[in-house]
Amino acid sequence: MLERVTQTDNTADGRIHPTAEIHPTAIVAPGARIGAGCRIGPWCTVGADAVLAEGVVLASHVIVEGHAEIGEKVQVSPFATIGLAPQDLKYKGEPTRVVIGARTLIREHATVHRGSIGGHGITSVGADCLLMVNAHVGHDCTLDHHVILANNVMLGGHVEIADTVFVGGGAAIHQFVRIGRQVVVGGMSGVEADIIPFGAVMGNRARLTGLNLIGLKRRGFPRSQIHTLRAAYRSLFRTAGVFQDRVSVTEASFGEDPVVREILAFIRADSRRGLCRAGRELLDEEDGAEAAA
Question: Which residue ranges does the record assign to the UDP N-acetylglucosamine O-acyltransferase C-terminal domain (predicted)?
Answer without folding.
Answer: 194-276
